[in-house]
Design goal:
A hairpin with a 3-residue loop joins strand 6 and strand 7. The protein has three domains: about 50 residues; about 230 residues, Endonuclease, Chain A (2-Layer Sandwich); about 160 residues, Endonuclease, Chain A. The protein has about 475 residues and is α/β, with parallel strands linked by helices. It has a 16-stranded mixed beta sheet that branches. A two-stranded parallel ribbon has the order 8-15. Strands 12-18 form a two-stranded parallel ribbon.
Length: about 475
């Protein structure tokens, strides 16, 4: 139908609706939202009012449903009560002045208390990590807790799944959590589901969107955590999913892409904190606490590292992981090493990184030369110029590999490793787990991995960047705007 022939009252009604949407958006959108995110939403609605308003109604709320947030508050209260019963080992002496307040902030925002007397060792080989976790599962005597963003039964993970099947056959309780959207409809989902059912695993999908069952929330919220707990005395966490390094996606296989990740094996009192994160997610999805799990049990550590687990996500009132990163960046005196596949900072994080350069701190950023997600890849590139001009050295991991490790090291004594990227999705929309570690020997391990990444990478210079074609700049800037739609 030609709009020129529409009745006057239809045109008038559309005009009233259009103006109402614009006025309402100015009132509703900026409230308790970052200025950049608010501006991005307002631009979208003012340019395309009807489509923009519909999109905002669909994904404009960055929080979990109210019932889930109440449940998270109950979980936080439970963790606080349990923490008073636990023995968290002996902390290392001579902590820097800024470290205890940082730890206190983390705990105030929902983290477990810091624990001493822990052992932690890195695994940087992709298949070795899967096989070592499989060996650990085979040694289980009571239970195995598996929580991964992506969990797929394939040739690379067959040993992992066989280990779960073997222990389940002898009566060990196998509990499994996997993200709903990251696995449903993806390659190997049916095979994965069938194997979990056949072994008798107690498995559940996290953050499901099932309107007919009353499970309604923003559909792009994700549980992005990756962790494994065996018997409450051994755990693994990091950036790696349980899947082939190509993720079994045709587009990745066609491009020859493979993921490079980093996992950490942890023992000691801190395992209780990692287990608490699993149990809180299990309770959030099932409304029950599993039998036979003593959260107050604390195993003996093989080292004396100080560790603290920092969970984060839309169930918390603030962005716990972002505040942790900011505090560390401002505390650094000599070196900051950032490894993040998706580095899309907000204003505060960008200011913290560039201010560190202004203080004379050596700042290096490791990213992938090639991206697997176009919008995030271009949004990240939009920050390269300001970073390079500030003095950040940017190392680009070569094609066809995606550097998926998420780590941050400060000076020679503190590191963070986990599932959290340094982007606005990980800060506000994804449920993540990060581990803060104090101990020179662990930082040395991370530094060795960083050195290997640097050896394999090439450095991006400001001169090279300034030769970027105009079309790339346009794409980068457009992606930067869309990345703020939260």
């Amino acid at each position: 139908m030609n709009p020129d022939n529409w009745p006057w009252w239809v045109v008038g009604a559309l005009l009233v609706i259009d103006i109402s949407i614009r006025v309402a958006s100015i009132i509703v959108i900026p409230r308790n939202r970052r200025p950049t995110a608010a501006m991005a939403w307002l631009l979208a609605i003012f340019f395309i009012p009807f489509a923009g308003a519909l999109l905002f109604l669909l994904i404009g709320n960055p929080h979990l449903p109210r019932a889930r947030r109440r449940k998270q508050a109950q979980i936080n209260e439970y963790i606080d009560d349990i923490s008073e019963q636990l023995q968290f080992g002996t902390l290392r002496p001579n902590a820097p002045d800024w470290f205890p307040p940082l730890v206190a902030m983390n705990q105030h925002l929902g983290a477990m208390p810091i624990a001493g007397d822990n052992g932690a060792h890195l695994i940087s080989d992709y298949q070795q990590s899967l096989d070592e976790m499989a060996d650990a599962i085979r040694a289980a005597e009571r239970y195995v807790h598996v929580e991964f963003y992506i969990l797929q039964a394939d040739a690379s993970t067959d040993n992992f799944f066989r280990a779960m099947e073997e222990v389940a056959a002898r009566g060990v309780q196998v509990r499994v959590l996997l993200d709903f959207w990251a696995n449903r409809g993806k390659p190997r989902y049916k095979q994965t589901r069938d194997r979990l059912n056949a072994m008798g695993a107690d498995w559940h999908e996290m953050l499901p969107v099932q309107p007919l069952r009353g499970r309604i929330q923003r559909p792009d919220l994700r549980n992005h955590r990756k962790l494994l707990v065996i018997d409450g005395n051994l755990a693994y966490l990091g950036s790696q999913n349980v899947t082939d390094s190509s993720y079994n996606l045709r587009k990745n296989i066609r491009r020859g892409l493979h993921w490079v990740d980093l996992m950490v094996r942890v023992d000691g009192p801190i395992v209780a904190s990692i287990n608490a994160v699993f149990l809180s997610d299990y309770y959030a999805e099932t409304d029950r606490v599993p039998d036979g799990v003593d959260i107050t049990y604390v195993g003996t550590g093989t080292g004396d590292l100080d560790c603290q687990i920092v969970p984060s996500g839309p169930g918390f009132e603030v962005e716990n992981n972002l505040r942790l990163f900011l505090a560390l960046l401002y505390a650094a005196k000599d070196r900051i090493m950032i490894v993040s596949p998706y580095f899309v900072p907000d204003e505060a994080l960008l200011l913290a990184v560039t201010a560190a350069c202004d203080r004379g701190v050596n700042v290096e950023l490791f990213v992938s030369e090639e991206g697997d997600q176009a919008i995030v890849y271009h949004a990240q590139r939009s920050y390269y110029e300001v970073l390079l001009k500030a003095g950040v050295r940017i190392w680009m991991y070569p094609k066809p590999y995606i550097l998926h490790t998420k780590s941050l090291t400060i000076d020679e004594q503190v590191a963070v490793i986990g599932s959290s990227n340094m982007d606005m999705r990980s800060f506000g929309l994804n449920q993540e787990i990060s581990m803060l570690v104090r101990g020179e020997e662990f930082v040395e391990e991370v530094r060795a991995v960083e050195d290997e990444y640097r050896r394999l990478s090439r450095e991006l210079t400001l001169e090279e960047w300034e030769q970027q074609p105009l079309r790339s700049t346009v794409l980068d800037n457009l992606a930067r705007l869309t990345s703020a739609l939260q």
